[in-house]
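SAMPLE LOG
Freezer: B-3
Tube label: C17
Construct: single chain, 243 aa
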Amino acid sequence: MHRFSLKTLALAFAAVAVPGLASAQLTANVSLTSNYKFRGQDQDVNRIKSVNPAIQGGFDYSFGDSGFYVGNWNSSVDWLSGNSIEADFYGGYKFKAGEVDLDVGALTYVYPGNTNGNTTELYGAATYGPFTAKYSHTVSKDYFGWAGAKTSSNRGRNTGYLNLAFAQEVAPSVTLKASVGYTRFASDIKDLGVPNYVDYSVGGAYDFGAGLSLSAAVAGANKKGFFGDANKARLIVSLTKTL
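STRUCTURE (predicted):
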């Protein structure tokens, strides 16, 4: 039976890891959007109107060809008392299974001014050609303030979200995009009378080159009788610069 020293193992690990780290990539993005919707719902419920601009941006870091990545994305919001920022932190692993691209990871949504909204999900996605299916599963006690807040014994854990998306270039620099999603709330949230609902988005994007793109889509959700105008369909226009 062979015995290896820690130094030998460290050198072996470095020999494998260094080439991947050498090709690691850091990208950044910033965008201005006419309205920030998340799963069909406006993220500024104090001023519900057709044009309600939000500034957004973040960073992504990929560990070379290893498939591992981490990132951060942020947006201005206004739906929690005392808070005006959403900060998302995520990490995962991308790999292939034949002609299918797979992606698994974890994502936490942080609201610095009011932690009652903090939510953590595990996700898995599969992409085949222009089609992507992604499922997100809540593992935190809270689900965006609906249940699990410090003053509540209810739990948002096990809330699930399934999204089916389509993206296809239909002309040079023009991509058609469409998606439909379904939110299934945890039993404690449903017991409060909150209904499961469907959201949708249909639109496209134009790539100007040099990392600059313009997108437009009609997005909204059903169950407006319960959620109100926050779920109303809106035309959302966004200008994004990737660095």
